[in-house]
């Protein structure tokens, strides 16, 4: 599959390079999400910090979703991707 619907033809970037870049970006976003999850401030005793934390984690979750959608648009999805999306939705519901 050739990724040309981004509006630019990439002369030196192959399909494997593009997929690797997307996967690397998703890895970094997931690391950021995990880091935020383990450092969640108390909603009761640290309400201002929790509000800021909630905003940050929501932004990271939205970015993960957008990058996954772009990857699905450009490259075929796998069963593992569907499992990951379900896990992210479950985490959101638990909050």
Query: How does the major sheet shape up?
Result: none
Please state the oligomeric state of the protein chains shown. Answer: single chain
Distance between the termini: 38 Å
Specify the structural class: mainly alpha
How large a portion of the residues is in β-strands, by DSSP E?
under 5%
Number of strands: 0
Number of continuous helical runs: 3
Topology:
Blueprint: H1 15-38, H2 47-74, H3 79-94
What does it look like?
- The chain starts with 14 loop residues before the first helix and ends with a helix.
- The chain has 95 residues and is mainly α.
- The model has no long low-confidence stretch (mean pLDDT 85).
- The protein is built from three helices and no strands.
Brief synopsis:
With 95 residues, this protein is an all-alpha fold. Helix content is 72%, strand content 0%.
Key features?
about 100 residues, mainly alpha, 3 helices
């Amino acid at each position: 599959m050739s990724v040309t619907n981004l509006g630019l033809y990439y002369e030196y970037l192959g399909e494997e390079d593009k997929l690797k870049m997307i996967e690397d970006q998703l890895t970094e976003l997931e690391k950021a999400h995990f880091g935020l999850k383990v450092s969640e401030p108390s909603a009761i005793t640290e309400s201002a910090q929790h509000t800021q934390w909630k905003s940050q984690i929501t932004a990271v979750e939205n970015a993960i979703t957008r990058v996954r959608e772009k990857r699905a648009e450009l490259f075929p999805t796998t069963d593992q991707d569907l499992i990951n999306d379900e896990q992210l939705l479950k985490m959101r519901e638990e909050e």
